[in-house]
Specification:
With about 60 residues, this protein is mainly α. Helix content is about 30%, strand content about 0%.
Length: about 60
């Protein structure tokens, strides 16, 4: 048994090698840091930052 991202085992899951399990009451937190140049952020970086900050649920 182990804890990995779904992306890391997606092929194995499609082939039926792995099973996704929800563990009731288990809460895991991740911490993300974002670094960018000074000034206005544009393009994909701005879209990603907006997605992360608006999608985050504590």
């Amino acid at each position: 048994m182990g804890i990995v991202s779904i992306q890391a085992v997606s092929e194995g899951m499609l082939l039926g090698k792995y099973k996704l399990m929800d563990v009731e009451g288990l809460k895991m937190n991740r911490q993300f840091c974002m670094v960018e140049k000074r000034g206005e952020t544009e393009g994909p970086t701005k879209i990603f930052r907006t997605f992360i900050t608006k999608s985050y649920k504590s």
